[in-house]
């Protein structure tokens, strides 16, 4: 049994853990040319972009539509647009870009919380070591397998985001073993069999050697949120004597990931901590830095907002208030600024807001979401604030979300092919920027959606979803006539009960 470091009384053990994790040279080597989150440049760009000329805004939109990453000064111009009509033009361009890069599909996933033990004391988080109300748990490998079986067997999830606090109990070896445990589960369905086919990881920054261990475990996307790019706010939210209190260790974690061989990474901030325009600029600068470093930008950007959490006053009194309108504009600007990236909008937000944001170019949504540790295999009990990191806003089941999307003519995709076919890193970047990946997206969405409909959909859902599937199949016949016969042959094999076919 590992030592529990989840309370402040454990300070000497926590200090030893911090000293083992943070390797100064693995920060300094990436910051030799200075801080790539240039606060002065952000402030100046935002100040100079107030009241932008509409002609300049349209020039920038043309650059976004050509799938080029924007400069900070260009993103600042878009952030400062207030004219409602111009904002609508931006939203239309954002959706057009999404269709060009990712086609007419939303990818679904579900988070799996593996452990709520954490040595850090982030002031907005229910898992903070300072929160004695939190009832903590770390899953065993058997329990992890049970969670995987529940997620893929009950709802039909194929893509999981495994979430870990920062703690010696959940170090690199544990993460790698837990990934293998999830992949090992196979469940019979009414017409075939299913399994989790891609496990992304949301975990703390790790040293390079530890990241190599996680990489060998079969990680999909490695996701680490900076929470806030604003240094002063960061220092106020993360006590300096914690691992997370080291801004530079966190902001360089993706550099270490690339050097460890993980070439698929996801960025994010926790909106509501600092000024939202500053955070969008920070995300852009981080993306540009990764492009400079390895020519590979983030595969995804996540946009969580601060939500009520157990034991956290700050989570109930947002330090930097952020309206739904601001949120919509931030998402639009992100889609336009880093046009190739996937945008993840989670069930923290309400169903109404998520539905609205589907029209702005988001690419991934979770559903049937449970964020208690072990919550998928436990009997459903609703949300319990002292057993989870924060409270959710959208409690739709996967089938309900899929039907809502289908009513709007959008297909749900369970595709995990890119990662398994080696379309990651620089390869996926090129495919996304040139629109080639969008073709794979369309085809694999059709194949995986057929599979899900046959295995999991209720009669009512089938009625709602079949027309979308057929119209996507028709579009493939029209747009890819030479490829269509092969696609149709795969499609028919799935109808006959074969599983996991993809391009
Ligand atoms: S935000 Fe993450 S690092 Fe901070 S206390 Fe919560 S789980 Fe730990």
Radius of gyration over C-alpha positions, nearest whole angstrom: 22 Å
The percent of residues in helical segments reads: 40-55%
> Order of strands side by side in the largest beta sheet?
1-2-5-6-7-8-9-10
**Structural class based on helices, strands and sheet pairing:** alpha/beta
What ligands can be seen in this structure? iron/sulfur cluster
Kindly estimate the percentage of residues that lie in beta strands according to DSSP.
Answer: 5-15%
User: Multimeric state of these chains?
Assistant: single chain
CATH topology of the largest domain: TIM Barrel
CATH class of the largest domain: Alpha Beta
Instruction: Report how far apart the termini are.
Output: 44 Å
Q: Which residue ranges are poorly predicted, with pLDDT under 50 across at least 5 consecutive positions?
A: none
CATH superfamily of the largest domain: Aldolase class I
Total count of strands: 11
Number of domains: 2
What's the pLDDT, averaged over the residues? 93
Task: Report on this structure.
The protein has 503 residues and is an alpha/beta fold. The chain has two domains: 9-35 and 94-378 and 389-433, TIM Barrel, CATH 3.20.20; 436-495, no CATH class. The chain is 47% helix and 8% strand. It has helices spanning 11-21, 25-28, 39-48, 54-65, 72-79, 84-102, 141-155, 172-183, 208-216, 231-237, 247-251, 253-259, 276-294, 324-337, 351-358, 398-407, 417-420, 425-433, 436-456, 459-479, 484-495, and strands at 105-113, 159-163, 187-188, 193-194, 198-202, 222-223, 265-268, 300-302, 342-345, 364-366, 411-413. The chain has an eight-stranded parallel beta barrel with strand order 1-2-5-6-7-8-9-10, surrounded by six helices. It has a two-stranded antiparallel sheet with strand order 3-4. Helix 13 links the parallel strand 7 (265-268) and strand 8 (300-302). Helix 3 packs across helix 5, helix 7 runs parallel beside helix 8 (172-183) and helix 19 packs antiparallel against helix 20. Iron/sulfur cluster (SF4) binds at residues 118, 120, 122, 125, 127-128, 165-166, 244.
């Amino acid at each position: 049994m590992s030592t529990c470091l989840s309370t402040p009384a454990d300070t000497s053990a926590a200090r030893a853990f911090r000293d083992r994790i943070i390797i100064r040279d693995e920060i300094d080597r990436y910051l030799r040319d200075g801080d790539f989150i240039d606060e002065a440049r952000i402030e100046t760009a935002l100040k100079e972009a107030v009241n932008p000329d509409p002609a300049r805004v349209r020039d920038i939109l043309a650059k976004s539509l050509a799938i080029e990453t924007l400069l900070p000064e260009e993103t600042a111009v878009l952030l400062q647009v207030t004219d409602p009509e111009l904002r609508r033009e931006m939203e239309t361009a954002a959706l057009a870009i999404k269709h060009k890069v990712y086609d007419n599909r939303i990818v679904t996933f579900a988070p799996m919380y593996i452990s709520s033990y954490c040595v850090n004391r982030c002031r907005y988080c229910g898992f903070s070591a300072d929160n004695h109300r939190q009832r903590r748990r770390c899953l065993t490998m058997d329990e992890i397998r049970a969670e995987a079986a529940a997620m893929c067997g009950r709802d039909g999830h194929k893509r999981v985001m495994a979430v870990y606090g920062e703690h010696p109990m959940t170090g690199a070896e544990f993460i790698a073993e837990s990934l293998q445990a999830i992949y090992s589960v196979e469940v019979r369905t009414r017409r075939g069999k299913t399994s989790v086919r891609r496990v992304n990881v949301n975990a703390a920054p790790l040293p390079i050697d530890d990241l190599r261990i996680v990489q060998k475990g079969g990680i999909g996307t490695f996701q680490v949120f900076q929470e806030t790019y604003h240094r002063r706010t960061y220092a106020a939210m993360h006590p300096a004597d914690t691992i997370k209190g080291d801004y530079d260790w966190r902001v360089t974690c993706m550099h270490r990931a690339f050097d460890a061989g993980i070439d698929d990474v996801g960025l994010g901030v926790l909106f509501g901590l600092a000024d939202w325009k500053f955070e969008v600029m920070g995300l852009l600068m981080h993306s540009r830095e990764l492009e400079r470093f390895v020519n590979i930008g983030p595969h995804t950007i996540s946009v969580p907002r601060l939500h009520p959490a157990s034991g956290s006053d700050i989570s109930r009194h947002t330090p930097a208030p952020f309206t739904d309108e601001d949120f919509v504009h931030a998402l639009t600007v992100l889609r336009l600024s880093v046009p190739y990236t996937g945008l993840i909008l989670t069930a923290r937000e309400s169903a109404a807001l998520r539905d609205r944001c589907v029209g702005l170019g988001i690419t991934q949504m979770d559903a049937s979401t449970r964020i208690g540790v072990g919550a998928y295999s436990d009997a459903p009990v609703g949300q319990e604030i002292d057993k989870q990191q924060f409270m959710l806003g959208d409690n739709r089941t996967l089938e309900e979300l899929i039907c809502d999307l289908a009513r709007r003519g959008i297909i749900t995709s369970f595709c995990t092919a890119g990662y398994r076919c080696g379309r990651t890193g620089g390869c996926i970047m090129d495919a996304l920027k040139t629109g080639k990946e969008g073709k794979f997206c369309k085809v694999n969405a059709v194949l995986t959606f057929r599979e899900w409909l046959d295995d999991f959909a209720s009669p009512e859902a089938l009625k709602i979803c079949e027309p979308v599937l057929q119209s996507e199949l028709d579009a493939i016949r029209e747009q890819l006539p030479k490829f269509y016969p092969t696609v149709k042959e795969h499609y028919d094999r799935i109808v006959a009960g074969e599983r996991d076919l993809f391009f």
